[in-house]
Amino acid sequence: MSNNDKGSKLYLFSIVLVAVLGGLLFGYDTAVISGAERGLQAFFLGAKDFVYSDTIHGITSSSALLGCIIGAALSGYFAGNFGRKKSLIIAGVFFFVSALGSYYPEFMFYDYGVPSYSLLWAFNVYRVIGGVGVGLASAICPMYIAEVAPSNLRGTLVSWNQFAIIFGQLVVYFVNFLILGEHTQPIIEKMGEALYTVSPQSDPWTVSTGWRYMFGSEAFVAGIFTILVCFVPESPRYLALIGKDSRALSILERINGKVKAREILTQIKETVEVKSEKLFSFGVMVIFVGVMLSVFQQAVGINAVLYYAPRIFESMNMGNPMVQTVIMGIVNISFTLVAVFTVEKLGRKPLLIWGSIGMAVGALGVALSNVVACPPLMPVISIMVYSASFMFSWGPICWVLIAEIFPNTIRSQAVAIAVAFQWIFNFIVSSTFVPMYNMSLGDMGDKFGHFFAYALYGVICVLAALFVFKLVPETKGKTLEDMTELWRNRSKKQKL
After folding, report:
1. Given its phi and psi angles, is residue 295 left (phi above 0), alpha (psi -120 to 50 degrees) or beta?
2. Closest CA to 155 of 408, 477, 407
3. How far apart, in whole angstroms, are the C-alpha atoms of residue 356 and residue 461?
4. What is the pTM of this model?
5. Are 453 and 301 in contact (CB under 8 A)?
6. Which residues contact 426 (CB under 8 A, 6 or more apart)?
7. What are 203-224's pLDDT values in tens digits?
8. What pLDDT sits at residue 184?
9. Is the dihedral of CA 111, 116, 118, 124 positive or negative?
């Protein structure tokens, strides 16, 4: 049999590799704040025209997530009207502009190095622009990979997108660590309830400059991604959807071989005959399941750990918090590989259920360590268990399911809605974590906030396991066209 009859795995892997760079940027952009937020807080605490409070810092640290909500909500429109490829190019441009703008928010309008309320707005606008890029990439990268991948490789290849997200976070942990170098993070002193000041002993370089380099470093990766996306093909399923069958067939042949390509194109055409199907054509449950997958992925609280990791480790008094953050990044990437290599063997549901249980144990372990006397190592290990359990389950598998669970004719719309909910809850979790973590109550003081935050996340993890067990269908080994049939049948049963 000729190579043309088998298709080219090298070609498939090369275009998936470019697509997962979008995932790497997603991880880089969302985690860069972990190293920069302390310096950023110290910088704006020096403003004379407003008080930079805990709440404002929580919103500023999470402002990119507002853009993520916008980008995810618009992703269905972009993917449906401009195609998957052009939408990723647009996302890359947003990443690039945001990186440079966050590095130098004073550009054209403000005096360099002078914190003010209007400069805070400018900084947040640039972060929101980057968030729009993340929102687009988070929805369209896994969608693109799922639409080019053969069914027997789809789960693995979409999981590589999550690996790229975690790898991007690990890269930025290292980059932040290297940028910081011999410098130290600012010393923030509490003045009163939710009010802080910068200690005179703080390293002035980290207050004025360090956080800028951390944000600006993303521009290099964003530029490479934007250029490379120009050379990948459009999704064959999108091409079939808009009637460009010959181009779709050509790409499918290069990936799957001639015989299989014609079979796949026939299946695609059978499911896209009615291009204008309404969102709820397959019932409410398919949308509900997709949305709740997104809600639970964020409500379990993982991004509170990822965004504020150095601050959390510092509160545990276990050495250099930046080093521990890097160690956590290595643990995360290692356990993401567990999902990559087992998702097609074990299936989606078992990984999600076991991951939920592991996260619940880890989160409740952190919570209990704040009310029960225990060695400092216990909360650190609990955090690692919590994070590692997420990385082999909800981290990659949620994206796999969102990319493959929806029928062809409503996929771009449904993915946009599901991912928008993901970013809405990401923003809720991230912006409420610092105030919740710092809550005081009676004799427990700040320990109450530490306990309450992780106890809440632990309970949500248990609810997530029950949701998956009861309502989420297993998609292992099914084609994207099989999902159309599955939900159509479920919809018919609901109407009977």
Report:
1. alpha
2. 477
3. 5
4. 0.75
5. yes
6. 65, 68, 298, 303
7. 889 888 999 999 999 999 899 9
8. 83
9. positive
pLDDT of 446 > 70? The answer is no
d(CA 52, CA 201) in angstroms, rounded, equals 20
Point out the least confidently predicted range of 3-7, 102-106, 345-349, 462-466.
3-7
**HEC letters along the chain:** CCHHHHCCHHHHHHHHHHHHHHHHHHHHHHHHHHHHHHHHHHHHHCCCCCCCCHHHHHHHHCHHHHHHHHHHHHHHHHHHHCHHHHHHHHHHHHHHHHHHHHHCCCCCCCCCCCCCHHHHHHHHHHHHHHHHHHHHHHHHHHHHHHHHCCHHHHHHHHHHHHHHHHHHHHHHHHHHHHHHCCCCCCCEEEEECCEEEECCCCCHHHHHHHHHHHHHCHHHHHHHHHHHHCCCCCCHHHHHHCCCHHHHHHHHHHHHCHHHHHHHHHHHHHHCCCCCCCCCCCCHHHHHHHHHHHHHHHHCCHHHHHHCHHHHHHHCCCCCHHHHHHHHHHHHHHHHHHHHHHHHHHCHHHHHHHHHHHHHHHHHHHHHHCCCCCCCHHHHHHHHHHHHHHHCCHHHHHHHHHHHCCCHHHHHHHHHHHHHHHHHHHHHHHHHHHHHHCCCEHHHECHHHHHHHHHHHHHHHHHHHHHHHHHCCCCCCCCHHHHHHHHHHHHHHHHC
Segment 42-76, tens digit of pLDDT: 999 888 888 888 778 878 887 887 888 899 888 88
pLDDT digits (tens, 9 = 90+) for 151-198: 778 778 888 887 888 788 788 888 988 998 888 888 777 766 666 777
